[in-house]
Design goal:
- The protein is an alpha+beta fold and 80 residues long.
- Helix content is 32%, strand content 28%.
Length: 80
């Protein structure tokens, strides 16, 4: 489903998916029945949550990171 929406699969971690739209990035890590995602643009995050909620039953626990660039950097490093 994510690949059909334009995400690229991580080359080392096959559970990491990356979507780039211009300068914005959305990173999604899926493991069994857990999804962790981070993004640089709130609208992109909102579209992802809406899309996933329409397709799957989801209960969400959201964690807000004070420095989301650190989270994005960690995910990006995992993709290499």
């Amino acid at each position: 489903m994510l690949l059909a929406k334009g995400f690229k699969m991580g080359s080392i971690h096959k559970t990491l998916f990356i979507l780039k739209q211009g300068t914005n990035t959305l990173l999604v890590q899926i493991y069994v029945d857990d999804i962790v995602f981070a993004g640089s643009y709130n609208a992109l995050l909102g579209m992802f949550v809406e899309s996933m909620s329409n397709k799957f039953e989801m209960s969400m626990t959201l964690f807000w990171f004070r420095n989301y660039e650190h989270v994005l950097s960690w995910f990006a490093n995992q993709a290499n």
